[in-house]
Design goal:
Blueprint: E1 2-11, H1 16-26, E2 30-38, E3 44-53, H2 56-67, E4 72-77, E5 83-94, H3 100-109, E6 113-117, E7 121-128, H4 130-141, E8 145-150, E9 154-157
Antiparallel strand pairs: 1-3, 1-4, 2-3, 5-7, 5-8, 5-9, 6-7
GO molecular function, one term: acetolactate synthase activity
InterPro entries: Acetalactate_synth_ssu, Acetolactate_synth/TF_NikR_C, Acetolactate_synth_ssu_C, ACT-like_dom_sf, ACT_dom, AHAS_ACT, AHAS_small-like_ACT
Enzyme class: transferase
Length: 166
Amino acid sequence: MDKYLLAVLVDNKPGVLTHIASLISRRAFNIESISAGYTEEKAVTRINIVVSVASENELNQVVTQLSKLIDVVKIVNLTQFDSITRELVLIKVRATKESRAQIIDVVNIFRARIVDVGVENVVVELTGDTKKIDALSELLSDYGIIEIARTGAIALSRGPVPVKHM
């Protein structure tokens, strides 16, 4: 299965995100991640969706079905373009007196930040691409991950042209 990142511009109305997610899941396509937020235009919401599909034909089916929704303004497959993709992760890790210094070293190597410290744990924050976040998670798993909260991927194309004009 290949992963594709779609930037979907939609009318900023209640229920639109639900319609999009349910349309994709009804077609038995897997949503790897989904994130939504305001854009530079108040009336438009940007939804970033990472979908797993077996072929470009299946991807085209997803795009075709989404484009039929009334509230969808524009769909761009950012996988086709040179783009900047980021995720945010918060990782709560067990941290004993003995392991705390080692955890700090790992955090510093990844240019992550410790955003909370408890008696028995620390919370690490990292923004980066999927591979970087996966690598940090793997290293911190040796210390005992208590909990992970991870956003979906967001992306912007490189250069001056915004998605709405692609």
